[in-house]
């Protein structure tokens, strides 16, 4: 089945909100936030669509103070489409976008128990010919005891 990868546009906000809600593991933000991402940050976000249904989303933005750094925020794939390379392909979409030539560093955060994400980004680092470094970022003190800490993963691009 063909999967189409593209930048989101404003109407995708609702489906993105539903996808994140259904992921059960990602922090759910307001629908308003996902409309803003789909509209204002379309260039640095990717959606995956199968049969007109949104099955994947990745959000990212260039750090305002360091625009050569891409911060990858939430990534989610519908449970029915996991383990088939959808998340990896969404990340590879960035490599085709004109702005990516200006990116020198990629940052993201992952919670310690999220093995799927750790493997996903380790594979992307390998593909980009670089390595991932980690350091503490947000602790349980910041996020509350019901939220795992978030480690900062970074990779420098050549
Ligand atoms: C994390 C997530 C986006 C991965 O999406 P996906 O489309 O299934 O990932 P891919 O098929 O592209 O797999 C990428 C790599 O991760 C590995 N992987 C995928 N799911 C895995 C799992 N549950 N455990 C361990 N490794 C996993 C794959 O084997 C692949 O590595 P490989 O190339 O060595 O085989 C998806 O599991 C998801 O939406 N999870 C819920 C939301 C979430 O946790 N998001 C990340 C928060 S930071």
SSE sequence, one letter per element = EHHEEEHEHEHE
Q: In what range is the share of β-strand residues?
A: 25-35%
CATH class placement: Alpha Beta
Q: Per CATH, which architecture?
A: 3-Layer(aba) Sandwich
Helix content: 25-40%
Question: How would you explain this protein's 3D organization?
Answer:
The chain is an alpha+beta fold. The chain has a single domain, classed as Gcn5-related N-acetyltransferase (GNAT) (Aminopeptidase), CATH 3.40.630.30. The chain is 30% helix and 32% strand. The protein is built from five helices and seven strands, in the order E-H-H-E-E-E-H-E-H-E-H-E. A seven-stranded mixed sheet has the order 1-2-3-4-5-7-6. Strand 4 (66-77), helix 3 and strand 5 form a beta-alpha-beta unit. It is globular. The model has no long low-confidence stretch (mean pLDDT 97). Bound molecules: coenzyme A. Coenzyme A is lined by residues 23, 25-26, 75-77, 82-88, 110, 114-117, 119-120, 123. Coenzyme A binds next to strand 4, helix 3 and helix 4.
Please outline the helices and strands.
Elements: E1 3-6, H1 13-23, H2 31-40, E2 46-50, E3 53-63, E4 66-77, H3 86-94, E5 105-110, H4 115-127, E6 133-138, H5 140-143, E7 150-156
Parallel strand pairs: 4-5
Antiparallel strand pairs: 1-2, 2-3, 3-4, 5-7, 6-7
Helix pairs in contact: 1-2, 3-4
List keywords for this structure.
158 residues; Aminopeptidase; 7-stranded mixed sheet; 30% helix; globular; binds coenzyme A
In short:
The chain is built from five helices and seven strands; from the N terminus they run βααβββαβαβαβ. The protein has helices spanning 13-23, 31-40, 86-94, 115-127, 140-143; strands at 3-6, 46-50, 53-63, 66-77, 105-110, 133-138, 150-156. It has a seven-stranded mixed β-sheet.
């Amino acid at each position: 089945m063909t999967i189409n990868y593209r930048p989101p546009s404003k109407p995708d906000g609702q489906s993105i909100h539903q996808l994140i809600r259904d992921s059960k593991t990602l922090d759910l933000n307001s629908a308003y936030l996902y409309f803003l991402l789909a509209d204002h940050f379309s260039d640095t976000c990717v959606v995956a669509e199968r049969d007109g249904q949104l099955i994947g989303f990745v959000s990212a933005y260039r750090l305002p103070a360091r625009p050569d750094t891409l911060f990858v925020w939430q990534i989610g794939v519908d449970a029915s489409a996991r383990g088939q390379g959808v998340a990896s392909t969404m990340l590879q979409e960035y490599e085709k976008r004109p702005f990516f030539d200006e990116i020198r560093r990629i940052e993201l955060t992952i919670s310690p128990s999220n093995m799927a994400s750790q493997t996903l980004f380790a594979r992307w680092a390998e593909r980009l010919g670089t390595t991932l470094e980690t350091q503490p970022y947000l602790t349980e003190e910041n996020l509350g005891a019901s939220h795992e800490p978030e480690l900062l993963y970074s990779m420098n691009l050549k």
